[in-house]
Amino acid sequence: MNEYHPDKRSRRMPIGDLAKKTGVSPETLRYYEHEGLLSRPPRNASGYREYDEDAVGQVRFILRAKNLGFSLEEIVDLLKFSTNAECATARVNQQLTEIEEQIARLENIRARLASLVAVCPHGCAPVECCPILSAMQTEKGETDSPPSPEVSPHDAPDSCRNTVKTGLFSTGSLKLD
After folding, report:
1. C-alpha distances in angstroms, 96 versus 79, 84, 90, 117?
2. Is the pTM of this model over 0.70?
3. Confidence at 22, pLDDT banded by 50, 70, 90
4. Which residues have a Cβ under 8 Å from the Cβ of 30 and sit 6 or more positions away?
5. What whole-number distance in Å separates Cα of residue 24 and Cα of residue 66?
6. Least confident window among 21-25, 99-103, 137-141
7. For residue 78, is it left (φ>0), alpha (ψ between -120 and 50) or beta?
């Protein structure tokens, strides 16, 4: 049975208890406090931090936001928006757009890598016969984008066209043309 405790906020806990309740190390809690993610708690006569139950909610908010892909800097902004839902919605929409752009980039990379694998019919071939390595070495343009397959099995030298993978060794028993 849940009991109402009017003095819930007045109950204080040391940093170790907050760490146990949230699954976050005391060092991380201090860092969150230093970076403005977690409110600075009052200190007792000995100088130790004394957190209230609100701190548990703040830490859980931070963890949920991190799990949604927000950086700590972005979480600081979200916490500032706690009094203005319109700003929070705009920031979350921006995050969603960024994630959709990342997904599109990753899907492009996946397609390009799959097409590179598709042009390599003989698996582990000698380096000079590998269309994947050849495409990567001859790619022009940005270095952060994956290479597009500019090489097909038919572009391989004649000595490579007869190479087929058999275990770790190659034999010249199959013609690709």
Report:
1. 18, 19, 10, 31
2. no
3. very high
4. 15
5. 13
6. 137-141
7. alpha
